[in-house]
Specification:
With about 325 residues, the protein is of the alpha/beta class. About 40% of the residues lie in helices and about 15% in strands. The protein starts with a strand and ends with a helix.
Amino acid sequence: MPIQQMFTQNIQEKPLMSFIITCFNTSVDMLQACMKSIFDLEMESWEREVIIIDDGSEKPAINHMEEWKDQVIYLRQPNKGVSAARNCGMDMAHGRYIQFVDSDDLLLKESYERCLDLIRNMKPDILLFKMTHKEQDVEMKNGKVEGPIDGSIYMLHNNIGGGVCSYIFKSSLPINLRFTNGTAYAEDEEFTPQLLLRCEQLVATDIKAYYYREHSRSATQLKDEEHVDKRLEDNITVINRLHHLAEALHGTDREALRRRVNQLTMDFLYQIIHSRRNPKETEKAVKRLHAMGLFPLPRKNYTRKYQWFRLAMYTKAGRWLMSYLMP
């Protein structure tokens, strides 16, 4: 498939926001709803740059965007995966801030406009907001706001959300940081903690501004053995890379990233137990993590859930019980 590029958006000033949409064979209805959610936002046309990376769809996505095609930057490329598509979008972006939007999801108008107000008024390096899986949660005008705070300090004291779509971040922030090609399921988990390490001014809010639409083709809903195996393998690969990165850091940065690594390791073990329901598979995973220096989980008071899980996983008997009793 040849690369097909269409630069049709006329921008007179540096935009406030670059919305980067990656798509691959997204249904027409979902893609159009995603686009509408962006163009319905109360923004001046020059404030908004919309970049669509079509990652080798069977039919060009631009065919379904007649209403907006003079207002977007569109690139169609051979299928390379979401990581490569997002990297391409970042390289093309001119906005002061970047927002990734998956083509089957939505921005929630009033809630997201509140986030834009925070960006305009506080000018943080990163604004971290909430996603929702429930359609009835779509509108929330106000919410708690925390910060600005150093990104490493925030990560040291909080369980961060891994999904990059719940971050608005300055385009100047990810210097020498890109998504790792070939990581199909855990690319966000590797990217977002490193983004926070680069952040001096983070603002966090509990506003639910992004609607993640779960459906049969969502990555998290693919439950056949091949996809589950790939998801687990990607997760442990990313955890190991972040673990080695943490050991090369110092001070608060090191402890903050260690917390994230420990949280991801706990999540990985939970996924093993939940998907396998086999104590032998759990023991294999524990031995592998031990060889990587990731097990046993360290004695930390991150959250009550972490403390109880660490204790349950510490002994073979506890792990056996978890394999049968975990809901």
